[in-house]
Write a structure and sequence with these properties.
The chain is mainly α. It folds into two domains: 168 residues, Orthogonal Bundle (Farnesyl Diphosphate Synthase), CATH 1.10.600.10; 200 residues, Farnesyl Diphosphate Synthase, CATH 1.10.600.10. Helices cover 75% and strands 2% of the residues. The protein has 16 helices and four strands. The strands form two sheets. A two-stranded antiparallel ribbon has the order 1-2. Strands 3-4 form a two-stranded antiparallel ribbon. The model has no long low-confidence stretch (mean pLDDT 94).
Amino acid sequence: MRTDQDGTRLPVGSDAESVRAAVDAALGRCLDERQREAEELDPGFGRDLVGGLRAFTLGAGKRLRPLLGWWGWIAGGGAPAGPAAGAALRACAALELLQTFALVHDDVMDGSPLRRGAPSVHASYAAEHRTGAYAGEDRRYGEAMAVLTGDLALAWADDLLDGALADLPTRAAGRRVWNRVRTEVMAGQFLDIRGQVRRERSESGALRADLYKTAAYTAERPLHLGAALAAAPEPVVRALRSYGRDVGVAFQLRDDLRDAYGSPARTGKQAGEDLARGRNTLLLSAGLRLARERGDTAAERLLDGVGREPDPTDPALAARVLDALGARELVLRRCRALADRGVAHLAGLPIDPDVMEGLRSLGAASARP
């Protein structure tokens, strides 16, 4: 691994493991400095809140967004070494702090008890409240501390990005992309939450929420950010963004299937959470359409009860019915079609072979059950 003039460690190549190691080093350096500052303000704040944020951010995680950001930088013609490369890597690492913010707040909004196979941040703080016999409600304390954790992660993501952009001539283009991704992830969350409470069952609506909540934030905009920082030619930017949209939606559809049919030991979350909440997914909305087209009123009634209080349909039963209707296979086919179309956008691009292979492999992974 190379080291930049200011101490930023850079990947030796563009392979995923080398990039992830460099991102972890950049994040660790940033968070160590911020934790020292926080402890000067208040030892408990630095130790408990910032320490928890640091552990969550540097713990389990694929670093997919920073990885794609770096691949966008290299694909756009950015140098793999030197001061500009160090600045680009730090900008890409800011995406992981944005991910911390999004996951912590998402778990609060969804009431998810688990994340990455361990108690979610709000659940951990609620447990601390109970163990310490604190005053007030454990749930409210847990959620309040999780909101603070997410807010701090978002603020520090902005700080890390701004510090990196100061060393790049393309700072204005990078900031425009960053501003878009922050707004888009909020829009996707809004669509997701309101779709639940309104009990929407629309395939187009589900895909629209997937586009903003997952595809743009996970794949399209990270690639766009790296390419914009490298001042990539417009055809390259357009191809990378198109790839990111298609493969990003495919990943969300695959996650919907994992939620319904996956093992908690592999997903790190409780099985059937989306179905229990009545989230508008392509899986559920397509299943309802298939039931109506077949005149299967029993299946239609059962699926209509998904997420409906006070007596919601059992998520495991709903998953079996969706499978029998063919909705599971329909979503799998959509994943494969999106992955194939996404990779096809890359045809003929004059980009680094390692980056091309990484993007193709990621596209293939998005289509695997």
